Every structure is written in structure tokens, then in C-alpha cells.
Amino acid sequence: MITEDASTLDLKEARLRAIVRSFGTCIVAYSGGVDSALVLKIATDELGSRALGITAHSASLSGDEAESARRCAEAMGARYEVIATDELADDNYRSNPANRCYYCKTELYGTLSALARERAIACVADGFNLDDAGDYRPGRKAAREHGVRSPLAEAGLAKDDVRALAKKLGLGVWEKPALACLSSRVPYGTPITAALLEQIDRAERAVLAQGISECRVRHHGDIARIEVPIHALERAIAPGVRDAIIAGVKAAGYRFVTIDLAGYVSGSLNFSVKGAFDG
């Protein structure tokens, strides 16, 4: 017997597949996270070689994430390419204003839209879902300006739906923690540089290497404020693990290493600016 929840998910999946089929051809802005992976999986199922996943490689993407994205795309048999983008070439991005994400997404969607025109591909699609509308996301303005489609939101899928459907379809990333670019660790107004992003990446790898599945290293000058899920706090401060984290984060370039007792909070640096811009 099909439960009501399963039936609802089946209906949403059917809508999602119909929307993607209607594209005819598409580029999927593919980060390797569960949302864009699901879009790429559905696009590959429905459009075959007429769907193309593209990962934009830049200083704001962790090297580990780039490799993970490649493996996931290959596992689902998707057409897949990596292109270079350079949001750091934009003074507006480097200055790190509260709408920094707009300039990043302008670079990304502008590049993908130009590529779609060059290759006669009908549209660019992203992994935006219904729950994403509840966060501060100035990059949505860039998506609208470039006509980017969001099939997950259009089909009525929220984050739980995305994970449930990804699991049903056998995507290994179905329970992967949420992704965010490395620049999201830097308080607005602090200039972004490639060296700073590399420092943050190295610090986060040092934390993750200790068996902690998710973390954010928030950059506050020479202070690293580490956020981990509440259930991981005990492990992070356990003897041996704590010492390894301190050593690794200091080796990345920080003088002081702190653990935020509030735990990991998605978008914690956005709290002071939500609603300040058209997102």
C-alpha cells in the first residue's frame, strides 16, 4: 500500500520530470550538492545527452567538493563539464557587500547563459527548492535576470522532498550536508581574497579530518570560530580530537581557535541583513 507521503512524493516527482522534459535541452548549474544533483539526475533520465551538468570551478569552491561533484556526476552517467569562473575579478564581489552573492551568481549565470546560447541549449536550470526561499539569497535576482529555471521549486519540492527523492533514486549524496561557497564564512565588509578562501578551506579540512561530517569555520580576523552540529560538539572538544583541530586550524593561519557553543547554524552571518536587499 502506498502511504500518503509516498503518493505525494510520487506526484511531485512526476511534475518535476514533466517540467524538465519540457525544457528539451538544458544546462544544469551543478555544484555536487543534493539539490543540483537531483536536478541533473532527472535531466539525465528525461533528456539523456541533451542535458549537461556544469560545475563552475573557482577559488570559492573547496577542492574536495569539486572532486565529489565529479564522482557523483559520473556515477549517474550524466554529461558533465567543469568550467572556470572568476568572481574575484569583480571589485564588487571582492569588497564583500551584503549582496555579494548577487555578483557571484551574475558571474555564474552569465557564463552559463552565454554557453547555452553558443551551443543552442534552451535553458539553464539550478537546484533552488521551496525552502531556500526562507533564507537571505540575493543571488536569486541574478537568476531572474538570466532567465534561470528552478524545476525543484516549480514542482513544489522542499528540502525534505529533495532528500527523499534523491534517496529513492539511489543518489549517494541524498544525505550530504548543505553546501555553501567558502566566501559565506567571511563577515560582510571583510574583503575577499583567494588567499583568505584557501585559509578557510584548509581550516575546515582540518576539522572534517577528525571525523566530523559538517562544519563551518567563520573567519574573524585571526580568530577561527568553528561551528559544528550540536551532536558533534562533544567529539570536537574530546582530548586528542581537540588538539588535532587546534593544530590544523592554526597551521591554516589562525592565531586563536574557538568552538561556537550554539552549534552549526546555516547562514549565521546573514542574520543582520535578511530583508535588506531584494533577493
Could you characterize the architecture of this molecule?
This protein has 279 residues and is of the alpha/beta class. It folds into 2 domains: 4-168, HUPs (Rossmann fold), CATH 3.40.50.620; 182-270, Alpha-Beta Plaits (2-Layer Sandwich). It has 11 helices and 7 strands. The chain has helices at residues 4-23, 34-47, 63-75, 91-94, 100-118, 139-145, 151-154, 159-168, 194-208, 233-236, 241-251; strands at 26-29, 51-57, 80-84, 123-125, 216-220, 223-227, 256-259. The strands form 2 sheets. It has a 4-stranded parallel beta sheet, sandwiched between helices. A 3-stranded mixed beta sheet has the order 5-6-7, covered by helices on one side. The protein is globular.
Quick overview of this protein structure:
This protein is of the alpha/beta class and 279 residues long. 43% of the residues lie in helices and 12% in strands.
List keywords for this structure.
four-stranded parallel sheet; Alpha-Beta Plaits; disordered C terminus; three-stranded mixed sheet; alpha/beta; 279 residues; 7 strands; globular; 43% helix; Rossmann fold
Number of strands: 7
Sequence of secondary-structure elements: HEHEHEHHEHHHHEEHHE
Provide the number of structural domains: 2
User: Helix coverage percent of residues?
Assistant: 40-55%
Distance between the termini: 42 Å
Estimate the strand proportion. Answer: 5-15%
Q: Could you tell me the mean pLDDT? A: 92
